[in-house]
Each structure stands twice: as C-alpha cells, then as structure tokens.
C-alpha cells in the first residue's frame, strides 16, 4: 500500500529514498530522536513522582511524641493513712516534628500503686513543635487500707514510707500537615516515680520523676 500525501517530499518514492539514506527520518509516526525524547520525558516524570512520594512519605510520617513527668504532689487520705487521695501532676509533652502538628484527644491520665488507683481526664489540645505542659488533678477511685499502700521494705531517709507510683497517659493522636489530617492512633505513655509520704503534713512529694515510655498503635 502506498502512502498518499499532499506533500511531494513524503511521497512513497521519496520515503523509500529517505529510508535508504536517512533510515526513515520524517516518514512514519516517530523518528528515533522522537522516541528517545519521549523516553527521557517519561523517565524524568517517573523520577519526579518517586521523589515526591518519598518526600511526602517522610513528611507525613512524623516521629512519635515524647512524654516526661515534670512534677507531682499528692494529698494523703488521712493522718494515719499511707493512701493517696489526690495527685496533682504535670507532664511535659514534646513534639519533635517541625512540619507536623500533634492533635490529642480522649486523654485519660491514670496513676496506680500498691492498693490504690487514681484517674483524671484532660481536654483535647494541639501541639506544634516544642514542649507543652499537661496538668491534671487525679482523684482516688477506691479506698485504700493504710498498710496496703506501702511497698514493703521501701523507706526514705528518716524512716518515711515511700510508694512506687506508676503513671499512664492514654488517648488518641492524629497528625496535621498543612490541611491534611491523619487517622487516629492509640497513644500510651507510661512513667514510674517514687513518692515520699509526709504523713505529718498529710501530703506526699514525688522525689524522683522519669522519662516516660511512649508507644503508638
């Protein structure tokens, strides 16, 4: 079949001549140079898409926040009791991400020791990069017998009894990058601290705070 064209340069005879001398440049759909340019353009586009995907993956996959116990003061249940009725706590939440805002909600703070538990809820809040202090006043959820609250063999200087206090921050965490917001993830931060009971003053002071172990699920 002959190639019919109005251009005399693209006539069948001319194409045959050009195929012989120039390997068909200008006759047919694409020349070799055109194919190479198309391949280079496609490769560049694929490379750009892959690079953009890597950047988005690194940006939208922030590092987990870190929690630590800043301070805590406890109120003893009674003059002859070693149980804690209230615990005033302050935690530091640290967001290490420069481009991701942490969104916290459904926060619950709990403290437990031998024979007793305390709990409180906290308001939702947003956190950009840096530190935020989270405070809560936890109240006792059960009555504690005087002897049950003291860990056997644990005393501070002067014979004052001590408690090993375990604190836990629970809630949900989302990340916000520009207008994009991630799905919720379960957040848990666990801390351990030592409490020295001041029975004469009906209060107790946390003498040893700790860095909390934070997990996301």
TrEMBL record:
Keywords from the UniProt entry: Membrane, Transmembrane, Transmembrane helix
BP-aspect Gene Ontology terms: defense response to other organism
InterPro entries, sorted: NDR1-like
Region (Disordered) residue spans: 1-27
Positions with biased composition (Basic residues): 15-24
Cellular localisation: Membrane
GO cellular component: plasma membrane; plasmodesma
Membrane-spanning segments: 38-60
Keyword Cytoplasm on entry: no
PANTHER family: NDR1_HIN1-LIKE PROTEIN 26, OS05G0367900 PROTEIN
UniProt-recorded name of the protein: Late embryogenesis abundant protein LEA-2 subgroup domain-containing protein
Organism for this UniProt entry: Lolium multiflorum
